From TrEMBL:
Any single Gene Ontology cellular-component annotation: plasma membrane
Domain of life, source organism: Bacteria
Pfam families cross-referenced by the UniProt entry: LptC
Gene3D superfamilies reported in the protein's UniProt record: Lipopolysaccharide (LPS) transport protein A like domain (2.60.450.10)
Biological source species: Runella aurantiaca
Protein name, as recorded: LPS export ABC transporter periplasmic protein LptC
GO molecular function, one term: lipopolysaccharide transmembrane transporter activity
InterPro entries for the chain: LipoPS_assembly_LptC-rel, LptC
Length: 170
């Protein structure tokens, strides 16, 4: 007695292919952050994509308003795109980032990161800060700031800028 066996691939079986696309997409998004019932930050964008990692991508322009204690907008931010990283809890905006403060200062950079927990903004990229009243311009690499940009420091200032009276070079 001889037994012969053969295996044949079932042509009707379907292979499982894992889905790697977005979990959800939403349009005209507005996210509000408050503290003790007071509005602190408002983020707006035309599109949000939520990924399987729980990260959120904002592929279109991002607009952020930072509010003061009286409930008025004291600083605005605009960028070409942004991203929320779930693992770290950080928001990152990229491309033509422009910040305008209540003190009539404008900040320009390619990228800024915001930490809602510490209420700090930072970057290691090139920054330019212009004072719209005096015309003074400061350049540098890296920046650390409060989220409302009421206080900031440039990590590595470059170029020339006016120093207060009484300060002389070494």
């Amino acid at each position: 007695m001889v037994f012969l066996g053969a295996c044949e691939e079932d042509k009707n079986s379907k292979k499982f292919i894992a889905y790697n696309g977005p979990l959800e997409e939403a349009e005209n998004i507005e996210v509000l952050f408050s503290e003790l019932g007071f509005l602190k930050v408002r983020v707006r964008t035309a599109k949000q994509i939520k990924l399987p990692s729980e990260d959120k991508v904002f592929p279109k322009k991002v607009f952020v308003d930072f509010y003061g204690p009286a409930g008025d907008v004291i600083t605005t931010l605009e960028s070409d795109s942004g991203r929320y990283e779930y693992r770290t809890g950080l928001y990152k905006v990229k491309g033509n980032v422009k910040v305008v403060t209540q003190k009539k200062e404008r900040l320009f950079s390619d990228e800024l990161t915001w930490n809602p927990q510490t209420q700090k903004v930072f970057t290691d990229k090139k920054v330019t800060i212009e004072n719209q009243q005096s015309g003074e311009r400061m350049n540098g690499l890296g920046l650390d700031a409060n989220q409302d940009f009421s206080q900031y420091s440039i990590r590595k200032p470059t170029g020339f800028f006016n120093a207060p009276a009484g300060i002389t070079p070494n």
